[in-house]
User: Fold these one by one.
Assistant:
Number 1:
Amino acid sequence: MNANLEQIKQEIISGADGLNSSKEVYEFRKQYLDGKSGKIGLLMREMKNIPNEEKAAYGKGVNELKEWALTFIGEIDEKMKAKELQDRYEAEKIDISLPAVENAEGNLHPITLVKNEIIDIFAGMGFEIFEGPEIETDYYNFTALNTPQDHPARDMQDTFYLSPEFLLRTQTSAGQIHVMEKKQPPIKILSPGKVFRSDDDATHSPMFTQMEGLVVDKGITLCDLQGMLDEFVKKIYGEGTKTRLRPSYFPFTEPSVEVDCSCFQCGGAGCKLCKGTGWIEILGAGVVNNKVLENCGIDTNVYSGFAFGIGIERTAMLKYGINNIKLLFESDINVLNQLNDK
Ligand code: PHE
């Protein structure tokens, strides 16, 4: 073989030792085998300078070298690609026996869960949602609800006044007035929201959540209220739950009642939750006082109504067996994780 060809072959053999990637192999192959600029490619162009009688042998030699180089570099290329693939498999290997990284899953706050549950129940009975403002005037929170300035019932609720006229609403009942001012009966609304009172102990918080219900239509009586509450307690506390009405007082309802339900823990036999009585107080309610309807321009000869107010925190505390209302507001993840709907 031509000495030059032999030299190129040796160069390829020793050069191949230094190749570390398929990219390098590609460049290396180009250096020798590229038709125009590769060293072997260029050998063919030398043909014109070769004496005629040597041309055939020279051509054969170059072709053989080319074939050999193609195979030789091709094999290296194959091995390199196989190794690279293997390396990638190793690097991207998933160890399915490794314990998974736990994904912290969010959950609705217990107050939201209870609120949604109550809304679902009443929405199923055809109630619409109305959300009133948290800052109210004295008129909406008290006066229109038949609680004028000098009324002793004002002392039932310690109020945060922002000014002589404005205050943080102490009850979602204020929303009743907004609704009745805007709309003539039939009215069937549910009004959830935050309320505020200067009150703070294990079962009271200065901010808490209420759910107001108001129905005004022709011929509404206390029986309608009790029938509806019977349905409500069965849905929220279980089929066997019963209600009991006790006389009470609210300036905006007449008659007024406190509503108890039979203890959903002991079924009425008496336990720690119901303090041995078999009954648990769940809400305040009553027939809407005619004075309130009149304040809103509703004809009391035609219409009557009932209203109720549920404390959401109290409902959540009963449902989840919590004895301190603060646990619902401290955002302690260990507590909240126990109070979810899963
Ligand atoms: N607003 C009353 C309270 O906060 C509850 C209530 C609402 C009572 C509607 C009767 C009717 O205590």
Note: Residues 169 and 269 are 38 Å apart (CA to CA).
Number 2:
Amino acid sequence: MSISIEPTLPIAGQKPGTSGLRKKTRVFMKPAYLENFVQAIFDGIGGVKGKTLVLGGDGRFYNDVAVQTILRMAAANEAAHIIVGQNGLLSTPAASHLIRQHQTDGGIILSASHNPGGIEEDFGIKFNAANGGPAPEAITDAIYAQTQSISRYKIWQGGALDMSQIGDTDIGDMRISIVDPVTDYADLMETLFDFPAIRVLFSEGFRMRFDAMCAITGPYAAEIFENRLGAAKGTVENETPLPDFGGMHPDPNPTWAHALMDELFLDDGPDFGAASDGDGDRNMVLGHQAYVSPSDSLAVIAANATCAPGYKAGLSGVARSMPTSAAVDHVAQALGINSYEVPTGWKFFGNLMDDNRAALCGEESFGTGSNHIREKDGLWAVLMWLNIIAATGQSVKDILSAHWQTYGRNYYSRHDYEAVDTDAAETAYQALRDRLDGLAGQNIAGLTVKSADEFRYDDPVDGSVSTGQGLRVICTNDARIVLRMSGTGTTGATLRLYLEQREMDPDKLSQDPQIALAPLIAAAETLIGFHAQLGRVKPDVIT
Ligand code: VG1
Ligand code: CO
């Protein structure tokens, strides 16, 4: 085989964000852009000589080209074995599972997740470690350092590889195993959930709609819901993954999955609805005329997980990202288990799961998962809800109301201001940051501030410290305002405002969250000035 060593120069801006490196696809298509970053991954993890990696992506535009490049670079860097999904496809949860199942040295996932795809949209790449989880900051920092000093990359010169046939092939001394992307993952789900009980539910006429949003979960969802669980054919819509996701924005939330929302709120709408994102790690859960906020979903799952065979022994602990509502904390307290609070991004849950401190984790951004893998897992969450419905015989709406009656309700909403001018966003963020120390005791638009700080995380397992993880303003009436800058956007800056208000009065548990949170929304405007300072009339996305 012929290996060439190509001279190259560092390319600015290859710093991984909340979840890998995400840029416009055209940026990734520039000469050496992908190659530099892949070589930096290899060098940043101490080389890949003799190692085994998993490789796959969500099928977005450029996935196929990038898979070829990465395979040829892995061969030139003397990797021993690459396990790759057929046609270069793997959902993020399936990739995490394969890394663990085959005990590989890690994996490379090609996705910009919930960001739109296509030549004019976004592409991304991230490295997952041997535990199956997104690389922790120590590794992403090492990769970034390599991008800043890189002088060469290695690539095998050869023709295109056929990714369509399942089986093994070799390039030089490196073995490539092309595997079915769905089967192992679907098998894992069968070990965790009560498939016979869910099958009975469907056989009795339970109606579900799953919107795969033309992204990676279509084939997984069709196999699991329709083939293995007997849901009616056509339950899964937008089933075929497309390079541009059919022009859709594959983010499962009420804004981008509005067609599904509309259907579930019809008088004769289905009993249950769900959607997933570009790479399959997010989920939105809906009942007939009921929307489950991700923070509530986490809490309900924590309270009911023992319904599912894989969790019948109980949860060792739970964890949530800082901006996620405290609803799950109240369940943890009742169960007598620990609840951990980590920064935004799934990579922070890995240590807690590896150390068996947390078995269930969640983020307000439609991410939920457990220690069955080390990524959030959209279909897992949907199956958990189906299992809970089958076990309790209750509707989603009834499960939610009962939960709030028992634990109280944490009204919650996130307001996103997207593509804000970067300097203006940084100025607004810094202005609040500068005021934090003096806020305690102040009255802001009628609310009294109890404490305010910038979140930092001291990892209890490895002692690592992560600073600058979002601004928190906590009020005396069990309310909270959080402000963060997104680390996944690719255009300007995205400011995320997180609002939370706890309500214990049993007669006030079914309000519209935007109304229940109105005083907080007003206080946030006074503090941050989205309208007054940034000229934004309303948020771009409300979840
Ligand atoms: C967002 C979410 C965060 C999530 C991340 C990756 O990050 O807020 O909770 O972990 O996306 O999800 P940010 O930095 O933009 O707020 V995915 O499904 O895009 O990998
Ligand atoms: Co995702």
Note: The pocket of cobalt (II) ion (ligand 2) is lined by residues 92, 113-114, 277-279, 281-282 (CB under 6 Å).
